[in-house]
Amino acid sequence: MARPSFRAAPVRVRVPATSANLGPGFDVFALALDLYDDVVLRIADQGLSVDVAGEGADDLPRNARHLVVKAVRAAFDALGGQPRGLEVVCANRIPQSRGLGSSAAAIVAGIVAARALVLGGEELLDDAAALALAATVEGHADNVAACLLGGLTLAWNEQGLARALRLDPVGLAPILFVPATRSSTARGRRVLPDAVPLADAAANAARAALLVPALTGRPDLLFAATQDRLHQGVRAVVMPRTGALLDKLRADGRPAVLSGSGPAVLVLHDGGADLSSYAGKTWQVLRLAVDGTGATVLPVHG
Ligand code: HSE
Fold it and tell me: pTM (2 decimals)?
């Protein structure tokens, strides 16, 4: 592969938050939401500089360990070679380690920004290849699919490569309950069993199938379609406050699910009711719209 030609002008990429699983669709379904991180990437003469503002500014690394930089490096390798130097500036709004896809956002932003800085980058690394690369860096495909494509996505693996289908959700009014405490996805995956009873797998297959019509125009099916027997129960044991909120919302008939691996909780529709009374002192309530666009390259001002 020929070495890439890099654009001198910087690029800005805007990436949405995502909520994965949506109940029974573990590692499959995800929804893009209108809360965004921005990443500006510029080719420099030498070295690496990383600046972070907003969410995670106090603890994210300012070096090659930053996830945006790792994704940028992986994308440049896939595009044929690294530039001499790089400047990365992150403006983060997506809460970190809460189950809102902040790591997927960093990875997708890095890949899409690197591709935009290479002449002909979109042909060399199309969306299918970008998705496969992002899923490899992330370790699972659901959040990165929705972050890249927007809307509602279903992800699967084919011959070791992540693939995704994008659908337009209809009739959702997402509400997120976000705690101050964090929980890593790695921890949230370690508690999961290696095998599950056939009856639980069959129950989840039914509910996940029902999720497709429920999310695309049959909101009356949302409560039944969001019942999970694979991952939420075991995760609730290590996140008891999240488990208690989920139980309460579902006992009241709300279509509530664990957002990704938690600890945030997503309600897909409030049914016209005011859900703020569930918040107490523990939960910040975010009413978000679905993002229909996914990762977007924007002009850089100033
Ligand atoms: N499907 C992933 C998990 C999503 O549940 O571990 C993490 O955000």
Answer: 0.96
Nearest CA to ligand 1 atom 6: 261
What does the pLDDT read at residue 302?
58
Measured in angstroms, how far is the CA atom of residue 82 from the centroid of ligand 1? 31
Distance 22 CA to ligand 1 centre (A): 10
Share of the chain above pLDDT 70, in %: 100
Task: Determine the residue type at 191.
Answer: V
Q: Longest C-alpha distance within the chain, in Å?
A: 60
Q: Tens of pLDDT along 66-94?
A: 999 999 999 999 999 999 999 999 999 99
Spacing, Cα 282 to ligand 1 middle (Å): 22
Q: Whose CA is nearest to atom 8 of ligand 1?
A: 260
Which residues surround ligand 1 with Cβ inside 6 Å? 20-21, 26-27, 99, 140, 142-143, 185, 188-189, 260-261
Question: Which residues make Cβ contacts (< 8 Å) with residue 61, sequence separation at least 6?
Answer: 50
Nearest alpha-carbon partner for 11 in 85, 135, 118: 118
The span from the CA of 135 to the CA of 126, in Å, is 14
Report yes or no: 232 and 140 within 8 Å, Cβ to Cβ: no
Q: What pLDDT digit, counting tens, does each position of 160-175 carry?
A: 999 999 999 999 999 9
Report whether the peptide linkage leading into residue 263 is cis, meaning its omega lies within 30 degrees of zero.
Answer: yes
Ligand 1 atom showing the smallest separation from residue 261 Cα: 5
